[in-house]
Amino acid sequence: MTDSARRRYKFRDYLSPRVLTMLALGFSSGLPFLLVGNTFGFWLSDEGTSLTAIGFISWVGLAYSLKFLWSPLLDRLDIPGLAWLGRRRGWMAATQIVVAAGLVCMAVSGTAHGLVLLGALALVVAFGAATQDIAIDAWRIESAVTADELGLLTSSYTLGFRIALLCTDSLMLISAQHLGWPVSYTLCGVLMGIGLLASLLASEPARADVVMHGAKAQKPLWTARGFSDAVAGPFIVFFKTYGLTALVMLLAISLYRLPDFMRGPVTNPFYREIGLSKDVIGAVRGTLGLASIFLGVAAGGFLSLRLGYMRALLLGGAMQALGIAAFAILPAAGPDIGIFTAVMCFDDFAISVAGVTLVAYMSSLTSLGYTATQYALLSSAYALAGKFLKGFSGLAIDSMTADMGRMNAYALFFIGCGLMGIPSLALFAILERRRARLSVNPT
Questions:
Q1: What is the pTM of this model?
Q2: Which fold has domain 11-440?
């Protein structure tokens, strides 16, 4: 990625075909995320599944954390039958079809055929969605010509992703209230067509295509040298570039979104327990919540360019921790719509800022030709700890309930989730001090 002088983008820049394509792909990336996570938990809760079981079933999302294991394939292989689309677009289209089919199968199966089958189908969706993310992230990074354009595409991606989360975490609840969960999941399967259309209309990144096919010609995947370069090459290059600092980077990234992951599986069941209806939650998130997301995405992009990646990360992480800890107010407030709205809007804003700044930072660390694998490594690192530990969130609340009561257990849990953001902030502060020191004395 080449740097350029900072420029002031005009409104028409945000309506360019590439940015609008990125918006649609971001939506496609975000759509299945909660359908195998928090929203899936709400469905299970409505069916009487225990909070502990919901927490453990959320482990299907570990596919997002392990995607670096198969990401080298996306850097080296075309999809049979879809090679005419190009490597990135072919993988995007194929995985979008898998996710759409999986969501429809989940709707048809439901809980009537048992949690094992439904969980297995959710795992298929999660695997397809994680693979889709590998391809979309690579397309986003490789399509950007300058660092500023990468920031623009990242903001567009994040906005599309957050809109999808809004649909599957709020509007979905209204749909489930009136149409039922199976119909709602089927509709989401149909909505994956937005991403598929974007993949068909997108342009394949030409610069990266030359590098990848050059590597394939010089070192074919079926040779020992080619296999080693495809699998180990991206990691060797990454650690050669950043040295031992790479370990600190990966640890800081892995802890950054831990607070949000931890509270995820229990949030929707929590709303249900304090007496908030699906209609109220959906209405708040679909109006003021949506506005907060827009503002948060814009603020995250602005801060990344204005303050630099590290300082923006620190500010976004601090806001994220405060936003999640603020949920401790709700157990005492009960179904007070005003307080719920205030907490929800601040949380949506803070999470959006944190999300944009983290994605922008991780994107800046990749190397052309290894984009899919290196970004998969970084995004797997950011999700691995959270995706695993969140499986115990329901058990933690159930365990505390006996001693302090249900609502007190929830309040303490949310405060604890907020405090989990501190170690990551400390590590990023160390990285920022090191960066500042090296910029003053590069030798």
A1: 0.72
A2: Growth Hormone; Chain: A; (1.20.1250)
